[in-house]
Amino acid sequence: MNSPVFVVTGAPNKGKSTFVKAMTNDASVVVSPYARNTETAVSYPFKIDGETLFTLWDTPGFENAAGMHEIVTGWGIRDSDHPMEVLRQFLESYAGHEDFTSEVEIFKPIADYACIVYVADCSRKFSESEYLREIQLIRSTRLPRIAILNPIDGDRYLESWRTGLTDYFNNIKVFNPHQTTFDEKLRILGAFSHLDDEWEQPLNRVIETLKVQRDKVLEESARVIRRTVIQIFDKEFSVAYDVARDEQEHREELLAQVRKFVQSSLDAAQKDITRRFGLSVTVDFSQEIRDNDLFDTTIRKKNLSVHQRAMVNTLVGGGIGAAIDTAAGGLTFGVFTAALGLGGGAAAYVKDISPMDLVKIGGFDPNEEKVRVESLHAELGLLIINRLRQVVAVLYNRTAANTENVTISKDLDPAGLLKLSRLLRKIASSRRHRYSEKHKKELLDLIHEKLREDRENVLVETP
Fold first, then answer.
1. Does residue 27 belong to any structural domain of this protein?
2. Which of 2, 62, 309, 366 lies at a C-alpha separation of 20 to 30 Å from 247?
3. Residue 360 pLDDT greater than 90, yes or no
């Protein structure tokens, strides 16, 4: 059985090439803000492991649909038992004719019994005088067909398009290729699968294959994040003790050492995760995802919610935190929240620790040759996890057409936040691998669970 083929059609400059680019994730698809950028029909196969699972054809915009409609109608395409023969007759008769250059390019792949995808801009008013002939031509083929309404500048005229196209298409979907998520792509593939009985099975296979691949990558990404957290907390940092320098100079040198190692570890983790998603490590990310200096106050605030800071600092700080930590297993989170004073905006008053507070430095003993970092603050663990969660969310939903920022909620559910904060405190305070494999497994499970939640709760920013 041949793999499904879809020919993407529509008026000029309505997002056809962008749709193809988003669905195939093929960066070679040329997209331009100017009309008539696509002059010939070009096929873009979607492959996994070398096998073509479906193909999208990008085509020029209609230029003389009214003229073509008049000709094929005169030849009886509307009442013909074999409309494709009439269509092929037109292609043979008008190949190379300057009045129908675009129409010939559009209908050449359609003549091989492809499904037709009609892309329209629903931010513009539907006009029968402007679009009627091209949609009548599409219907006259009697091939499976679907309309994709692209809200380029909003969906102000969405309902007028739905009404205008209802009698002409088997299905109508709204899809913005510039802001699509991975799950939105699967939704469109699901709609494609219902257009033709023969293609339901292969397209469902595509959907399941993509889901399995992404689930595997999420699990692998969780392992990369856990590995990064542990290697940073397990790293030993030290500087030579110099009696000619004061304590502050030693501290600043150690902080710079930790800062550099954390940033390089995050850079390496980001490249590793990118590779696992099958993307180039040189992909041009937005500034939001490139900034990996977690000791920068602005970046830290972007990557740690006030409730997360409140939780981890209270648990780490001792006093009431230690007492509650001991009894937390028997407390509801409501009691825990009340005890910490986190109701409403009270969490904002929890101490915002400085970069130097993230690093606990040992004593300055003239008899010792080195000054060492005793431990790193558990807050750093949350920062690392949240930072790389953002990377995963962007990559998970990235397509060749969608390069906009993806945002996620940095907060965890209360119980999960409590569990993760306690676990990070234990790891942060246990040097040289003194925490158990059980703790490492718990950390992996918490990270993996949050990555799965993130894919359901993402927001693609408006360009």
1. yes
2. 309
3. no
Mean pLDDT score, 99-117 = 94
H helix and E strand count, the chain: 17, 11
- Cβ(197)–Cβ(423) below 8 Å: no
Strand partners, 372: 238
Structure tokens belonging to residue 200: 């339901």
Q: How many domains does the structure of the chain reveal? A: 2
Q: Which DSSP letter does residue 2 get?
A: P
Structural Rg of the chain based on CA atoms? 29
Tell me how far apart the alpha carbons of residues 248 and 20 are, in angstroms, rounded to a whole number.
58
Domain ranges, residue 322: 245-460
Is the pLDDT assigned to residue 110 strictly greater than 50?
Answer: yes
Same-domain status, 350 and 254: yes
17, 18, 237, 320, 435 from 430: Cα distances, Å: 54, 51, 15, 22, 6
The separation between the first and the last C-alpha atoms of the chain, rounded to the nearest angstrom, is: 41
Same domain, 283 and 145: no
Tell me: the pLDDT tens digits for 422-439?
888 888 776 555 667 888
pLDDT confidence bin for 352, thresholds 50/70/90: low
> Which tokens sit at 309?
């800071």
Residue 344, class by beta-carbon neighbours within 10 Å (0-12 exposed, 13-18 middle, 19+ buried)? Answer: exposed
Range of lowest pLDDT (55-64, 119-128, 397-406, 434-443): 397-406
Token duo for residue 143: 């091939």
- Candidates 284, 255, 256, 254; CA nearest to 270 is 284
22/399 Cα distance (integer angstroms): 5
Per the CB < 8 A criterion, the answer to whether 299 and 383 are in contact is no
